[in-house]
Amino acid sequence: MVTLENYLFLGAVLFCVGAYGVLARKNAVAILMSIELMLNAVNINLVAFWHYLTPTQASGMAFALIVFAVAAAEAAVGLALIISIYRRRQTVVAEDVNLMKF
Amino acid sequence: MTPEQIVFWLTAAVIVASAVQVVTTRNLVHAALWLIVTLFGMAIIFVLLSAGFLAVVQVVVYIGAISILIIFAIMLTRRVMQDTGPQTNNNWRLALLIAAVLGAGIWYALSNVSFAVTATPVPNSETVLITLGDALASPNFYMVPLVTVGILLAAGMIGSIAIARDEDKE
Predict the structure, then answer these.
(1) Residues of chain B neighbouring A19 (CB-CB closer than 8 A)
(2) CA–CA separation, A34 vs A5, rounded Å?
(3) Which positions in chain B touch A64 (Cβ < 8 Å)?
(4) How many CB atoms neighbour CB B17 within 10 A?
């Protein structure tokens, strides 16, 4: 029997791998990919809780659907920003976008 | 081991291995392809959790739209980052430490709590789908979030076009 804790551990490991990717990668598109990993980990948690605690309601699945849609919108806007930055500054390294740095 | 357990552990191993490859691989296109493998594994996990509709949505939206968009963005911004230079910034050891501490904290918190797993069986997929559809369309439940997400997606689309538009050619 796969327990709820197994799914939650998988979500936690995926979230931490995504967190490392966000903090350690230079390329902005790679940072966005790691953000998508973290959002997927959240989705695992939501659907696992739905399946094991309240399978007769639709709240867990509806929440996961909203997370899908928000992740799609955020990926689209983020990648548009990266393309715009590339056009103006000719770089996608996140450290080089430092005009407002103190 | 039941078949469900075998499938779960195999899929979990594939997901974690390809996620690690996403964040460590030097070539960005390879990282995007490993992300697609991770997302397919996630779709299998959704099927194991009796959320077949979410598995299809995952494949269509994440793999079919977002991953393709990421590959587009990689191809459009390709000239600058050489694939042979270092692809982690100077703080990667601190990032590893932070991720490890975060993981350890979550594991510790999860092992000290027990959830009241319900005994009611999961309804069959048709009932799940009908319940989800009714909840998303009914004003008492989730119609307002659904319409808000529609407005968010429209705003995101208009915003992306406005941001990424090439203004020199006007």
Answers:
(1) 95, 98-99, 102
(2) 23
(3) 51, 54
(4) 13
Determine whether the interchain pair B99/A7 forms a contact, defined as Cβ–Cβ distance below 8 Å. Answer: no
Token duo for residue B153: 């997606």
Q: What is the pLDDT of residues A27-86, one digit of tens each?
A: 899 999 999 999 999 999 999 999 998 888 888 999 999 999 999 999 999 999 999 998
In a domain, B29, yes or no: yes
CA-CA distance, B19 to A18, in Å (whole number)?
A: 8
* A4-91: in CATH 1.10.287.3510: yes
Tokens of B26: 């030097």
Determine the distance from the C-alpha atom of residue B131 to the mean position of all C-alpha atoms in its chain, rounded to a whole number: 24
The residue type of B77 is T
